[in-house]
Amino acid sequence: MNKKMALGLVAAGLLSAGVSSVAVAHQAGDFIFRAGAVVVAPNESSPVVADVAEFGVDNNMQIGLNFGYMLTDNWGVELLAATPFSHEVSLGALGKIAETKHLPPTLVAQYYFGDAQSKLRPYVGVGVNFTNFFDNDFTQEAKDLGLDNLSLTNSWGLAAQVGLDYNINKAWLVNASIWYADISTDVNFTAGGAALSVDTDINPWVYMVSVGYKF
How many alpha carbons fall within 13 Å on the CB side of residue 91? Predict the structure, then answer.
């Protein structure tokens, strides 16, 4: 192999490496779609209900989806969505008394650390959450105790996140992220025919691991 050919191959290799290092990164104009497992872990609190206990709300895991767009190499926006979450509501020694479902779409503005050549892109975000509660109902055992007509008001609140993307190649990445959402709702119901309303904070931590695709 002559020197010119060798130098040509080296130059081509370096050029290829440079192109590929840029191609694997997040950069302005990229759309990012992520899908994976997401767990909502409520950090709930409420006044003592009917002199028994505070409401308790269990964790739930669903399929998480988020959609991002890179405005610049470092700034982006992202919408978090998921299949509906389902939670059991408990009340002290009475145990499970109700079930509820909700959808919590959350929109955040994000800042990505590093630059357009970085495979590893940690980021932070802040934005707003809207939570829609539906399919609220007491168990038959709770109805037998005189509880009925359950409804939960929808919620608007602040949200924040931290996350980490690892770019496998120019199209695929893996992600882990943690969210916190300010979710408060009025739990309305009747007890023995009397109307009651209990201001309840859900304020969940949300954990997600996912695979992403950029285009």
Answer: 18
Bridge partners, residue 153, by sequence = none
User: Within its chain, how far is the Cα of 192 from the centroid?
Assistant: 38
Q: Are the C-beta atoms of 150 and 139 separated by less than 8 Å?
A: no
Given a contact cutoff of 8 angstroms between Cβ atoms, the answer to whether 203 and 182 are in contact is yes
The number of residues making up the chain comes to 215
Predicted TM-score of the model (pTM): 0.83
> What percent of the chain is helix, strand and coil (3-state, nearest 5)?
15, 60, 25
Q: pLDDT 10s digit of each residue in the chain, 215 long? A: 554 444 444 344 434 434 444 456 799 999 999 999 999 999 998 888 877 888 999 999 999 999 999 999 999 999 999 999 999 999 998 999 999 999 999 999 999 999 988 999 999 999 999 999 999 999 999 999 999 999 999 999 999 999 999 999 999 999 999 999 999 999 999 998 899 999 999 999 999 999 999 99
* Topology at the third CATH level for domain 3-214: Porin (2.40.160)
Contact 79, 106 (CB under 8 A): yes
102-139: b (≥16 Cβ within 10 Å) or e: bbbebebebebebebebeebebebebebbbebeebebb
Residues 6+ apart with CB under 8 A from 188: 149, 150, 151, 152, 153, 195, 196, 197
Domain ranges of the chain: 3-214
Question: Both tokens of residue 11?
Answer: 């130059």
